[in-house]
């Protein structure tokens, strides 16, 4: 029985070492997977943070683009208003020209001045003077019409100048808007690229975590087997110890019995007892 128990104990001790090594190796492997997972998580989080920062820049540009579009539309609307006004005034000028006598404004003014000077500086017959006065009146009528046309034309020129300035402003806004829109698209593409890369890294981190879980589960299984074998070894060792203690106690009892018998024989012969023999007989109440 003792030999078989000893053999079993040896076998269990042989099983214990590889289980311990397997458990420790799996824990080491799990630690490496955890470190890789955490590093990947950190990298993915850094990419997401950078992507968010770029998103803020993109959104700021988009807000500027939206604002510039509104401003451009306002400028275009003003330009359209000027264009409509110009068209309206051109129609007015066309109608005025239909009834306007032929002649240049400056020439008419000079003619009026010349006739006035002639009337004022010359002694003319009544009939000739009246004819000249009538010419002045007719010319002044032409002058009034021409001045009205000139006034409307000047307004058209003014409106055209403003229209051109609105066109220039609209183009400037459009160019700036196009530049900002391009920057926004570049930021968006960069952000999308970062988020895609972050997702790839996150997937890799998830795989590392799965490996970590698998290694931990295997390590726990090996540890459970280790604990089970260790428990069996301790149980056998307790049994062996108890058996040895029992044998030791039995041997002590036998020794005491032998000493007791020898001591009694010495008493019969009147021989002197040793201290141990004396104690044993005294415990038995044989003295």
Task: Chart the SSEs and their pairings.
Elements: H1 2-99, H2 105-121, H3 126-269, H4 275-284
Walk me through this protein's architecture:
This protein has helices at residues 2-99, 105-121, 126-269, 275-284. By secondary structure, the chain is mainly alpha-helical. The chain has one domain. The two termini are 42 Å apart.
Beta-strand residue fraction: under 5%
Q: What is the count of DSSP helices, taking H or I runs of 4+ residues?
A: 4
* Structural class computed from helices and strand pairing: mainly alpha
Number of domains: 1
Largest sheet: none
Number of strands: 0
Query: What gyration radius follows from the Cα positions, in whole Å?
Result: 60 Å
Given as residue ranges, the uncertain stretches (5+ residues, pLDDT < 50) are: none
The gross shape turns out to be rod-shaped
User: What's the helix-strand series?
Assistant: HHHH
Overall residue-averaged pLDDT value: 85
> Could you tell me how far the N terminus lies from the C terminus, measured between alpha carbons in angstroms?
42 Å
Level of helix content? over 70%
Brief description of this entry?
This protein has 287 residues and is an all-alpha fold. The chain has four helices and no strands.
Features:
about 290 residues, mainly alpha, 4 helices
């Amino acid at each position: 029985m003792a030999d078989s128990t000893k053999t079993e104990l040896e076998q269990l001790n042989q099983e214990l070492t590889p289980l311990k090594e397997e458990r420790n190796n799996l824990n080491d492997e799990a630690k490496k997977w955890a470190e890789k997972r955490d590093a990947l998580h950190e990298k993915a989080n850094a990419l997401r943070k950078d992507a968010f920062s770029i998103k803020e820049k993109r959104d700021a540009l988009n807000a500027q683009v939206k604002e510039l579009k509104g401003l451009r539309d306002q400028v275009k609307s003003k330009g359209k208003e000027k264009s409509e006004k110009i068209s309206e005034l051109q129609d007015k000028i066309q109608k005025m020209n239909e009834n306007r006598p032929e002649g240049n404004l400056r020439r008419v003014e000079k003619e009026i001045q010349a006739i006035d000077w002639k009337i004022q500086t010359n002694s003319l017959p009544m009939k000739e003077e009246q004819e000249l006065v009538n010419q002045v009146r007719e010319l002044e009528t032409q002058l009034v019409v021409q001045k009205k046309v000139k006034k409307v034309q000047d307004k058209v020129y003014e409106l055209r100048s403003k229209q051109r300035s609105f066109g220039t402003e609209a183009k400037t806004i459009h160019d700036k808007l196009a530049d900002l829109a391009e920057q926004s698209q570049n930021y968006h593409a960069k952000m999308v690229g970062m988020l895609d890369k972050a997702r790839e890294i996150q997937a890799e981190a998830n795989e590392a975590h799965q490996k970590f879980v698998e290694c931990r589960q295997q390590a726990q299984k090996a540890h459970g087997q280790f604990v089970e074998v260790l428990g069996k070894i301790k149980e056998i060792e307790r049994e062996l110890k108890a058996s040895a203690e029992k044998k030791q106690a039995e041997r002590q009892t036998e020794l005491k019995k032998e000493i007791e018998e020898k001591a009694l024989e010495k008493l019969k012969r009147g021989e002197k007892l040793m201290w141990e023999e004396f104690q044993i007989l005294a415990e038995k109440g044989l003295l």
